[in-house]
Amino acid sequence: MDLDERIDALTEATDNWLSKDNDYLSQAYDQSVREEFFNFEDIKHALLAIKDSVDESSIRNWVEQAGLDESNNAAGKNVLCLHAGNIPLVGFQAAFATILSGATYYGKISRKDPYLLPTFLNEVKKTDAFSDVDIQWVHNLNYFEGLQTDSILFAGSEDSVPGVKKSISKLNLAKSDTEYLIRTAHFSMAYLEDQKQESLEDLVEGIFRYGGKGCRSVAVVVAPFGLDDVADKLNEQIETFWEENPQHQDPGPRLEHRYAYNKAVERPQIWLDDFLLQEGGLEFDQDFICYWKEGDEQIAAELADRFGERLQSIYVSNPKTKIAGFDGRIELLGTAQSPPISWKPDGVDTLKWLID
Description:
By secondary structure, the protein is α/β, with parallel strands linked by helices. It has 12 helices and 12 strands. Strand 6 (187-191), helix 8 (197-208) and strand 7 form a beta-alpha-beta unit.
């Protein structure tokens, strides 16, 4: 099919997938909650974020931005997506971009999010324009043994990369010239210039959505004021957020040990039983902690440089704010957990990478 047909078909498939009448999605939603992969509120947020970001206009803007056209596409390529599952539907963009690029999509669905993404892929296959297009996904990578892929996309820590590549080699999934797009960022940072209610609401969403598990989740806040200076206002916003969006996972006793240590050394902190905000430290040795650093834009730039590839994005509450040397990673704080379909993980446009 030509590019216009592909765009129209993907728009139709997404609309049908997100329809209230889609029983398959409803069942996957319920099963994901029932089996405790995610909570109801986080799945709802992920679906609404996709609904708000995917329409014909946004797809065409992405296509133009990436340089995708009839002569510059990924037709004829076999692309393997090894999807993560740390937050609901985290693999949606990679799957969508692969199909939009014209490549043949092969997906390995995460055991941590086994039900949601397949309902989208199934809806694409049901669309008339894709009825004869090869779209395959599995839950066990062994089923793809011998598949010769041209490109492989996956996300994980630096430590996981050798193991993944070993599995790919063992199963003969790559050729000598196969290209890899490996996502390794772990967290994001916010530079908060003010204490306005809207800014604090956006910050709380950025920190606490998904229990802080996503690479777009705010794990470090730099602000020109200390944590104690804004503690009362933050507590109020956190309480409101958690009333509507309870945290899915229990952090276990280690977090309480950190709270006790911080208290002993008189480190400013906000203790929330299931989450901790602390000023300073920056240990990054366990989940469910957000670190606060008093400082200006220069401090934010120095920290971003220090974090390197572990850092995904830098969010700002003021669109005029500049963090020297990091223009390509700056986004508005309000979009932290609701990115556009064309956002660039690790600074790389997935669609452009596929066609290049």
